[in-house]
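User: Structure please.
Assistant: Input sequence and predicted structure:
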Amino acid sequence: MTVTPKERRYGIVSHEGRSAKSGLEFVQGLADRTLPLNSMARTLGYDVVEASDGRVVVTAYPSVEHPTPKARSTAG
C-alpha cells in the first residue's frame, strides 16, 4: 500500500494558533503538515520535515530561480 503524503500548504497561522502551542508543538505542526509553512518557505524552496526535542530537520530544494554565482577569476 502506498501512502500519499499530505500536500504542503502555505499560509499564516493566527496569533491565537501560535500562542496555543509550545515552540516544539508549533514546529511539529509544520513538519506533520497540520500547520502551513510561511510563503518564504515556498520562495526559498525549503520544508520542515522532522521536529523533536532538540532537533529540527529542514530540507531545501534549489531550482533555476536560485542560481549559484559563478566564481570569478582574479588572476591576470
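Strands lie at 46-52, 55-60.
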